[in-house]
């Protein structure tokens, strides 16, 4: 290339260029170098770079130039901030490269660029990322991002706490593995919709590490890169446990009025009508007993409804379940004449509960004894401790339950377990636990039923 053309290209370069010869003498500087340093070319040419180094430090006030030496030809860029006479600040970057032009005459090419805008933009980006990072990690709702194949690549603190797993146990796993139904066809359909650019809002149930089901609303959006390629989706996950429980409570009270209490009122009305008729005394005595029994049933129902109403108002705390078990076992023996066998409660066990924990246990214990027609009633209360939770099993030697009835017992839509067991399930969920029913003897339902209550440990207040 013609030397004049080459010199013209370098002279008009948007980068500052300086050529340093033997003994650190400056042989050439272009216009941009002079503009960036604030020094004219005549004060730089044929002077020692080391000497001009001192003059630059004095003129621009930058101690960072002390690292720039014509003999140090490290390709690593050196950045420094300069403040000009008008008070404006700039960030400059200098790179030195050693070249051998032959005849034993080495040269050093110095390149200087103004990186102020880059530094400013990077700093703004870092500050923005910090702000958004703080926003994401402190938001009340969960946030999760997945890859095109449904693998979690990120989740925030709220989502991690919502389902009870640390991020290290979530990232890299398929999110469907943490859902209640684990419906992979549903996942494929959701991924297909996201690929088409469709956002969606839908309900989804997750399973906590403790086994508790967590109802949520998912607000999902697709993510596309700059090339328009689908790279995954992100979802805001809103827990709606309180909303669902409120809906269940409304249905609970409605069922109570239209079914349970209505049935007892019908018994009272019918029996009261018999009292007005001329019937044998035995019929009248039976009618009176039916009325009293129906009134007692209504009273028990109302008491349980009051407990349900108190449930939300009482704060959770650490409760020693050992003392509660001992007290309720004695009451059961006295009221129902049952023989109660207690195991695994030799020392205090503190669980997350409230002052109604005794009511929960009593519902299960009374259910075991009251529905047992045998003359010799036996109830077994066993505490089994694991690393994360305490399992309290209450078993009986009653008639047991069929597989179909066990499956439907805690079905929220059917309320097959009645008011007492509905209340038990609600209380267990409030405590962060759950309740399930099994055979007392595995595979032999006629040998009695066993309710297992899973509770979380709690530190003593």
Describe the structure.
- The chain is an alpha+beta fold and 461 residues long.
- It folds into 4 domains: 3-116, Beta-Lactamase (2-Layer Sandwich); 139-239, Beta-Lactamase (2-Layer Sandwich), CATH 3.30.450; 242-313; 316-461, Histidine kinase-like ATPase, C-terminal domain (Heat Shock Protein 90).
- It has 13 helices and 17 strands.
- It has helices at residues 3-11, 31-37, 49-60, 116-138, 157-163, 167-170, 184-195, 241-275, 281-311, 321-336, 357-370, 403-408, 418-430; strands at 16-20, 26-29, 78-83, 89-100, 106-114, 142-146, 152-155, 200-207, 213-224, 230-239, 317-320, 339-343, 350-353, 378-385, 389-396, 434-439, 449-456.
- Helix 9 (281-311) packs parallel to helix 13 (418-430).
- The longest helix has 35 residues, at 241-275.
- The N and C termini lie far apart (84 Å).
- The relative contact order is 0.06.
Write the layout of secondary structure elements.
Layout: H1 3-11, E1 16-20, E2 26-29, H2 31-37, H3 49-60, E3 78-83, E4 89-100, E5 106-114, H4 116-138, E6 142-146, E7 152-155, H5 157-163, H6 167-170, H7 184-195, E8 200-207, E9 213-224, E10 230-239, H8 241-275, H9 281-311, E11 317-320, H10 321-336, E12 339-343, E13 350-353, H11 357-370, E14 378-385, E15 389-396, H12 403-408, H13 418-430, E16 434-439, E17 449-456
Parallel strand pairs: 12-14
Antiparallel strand pairs: 1-2, 1-5, 3-4, 4-5, 6-7, 6-10, 8-9, 9-10, 11-13, 14-15, 15-17, 16-17
Helix pairs in contact: 8-9, 9-13, 10-11, 11-13
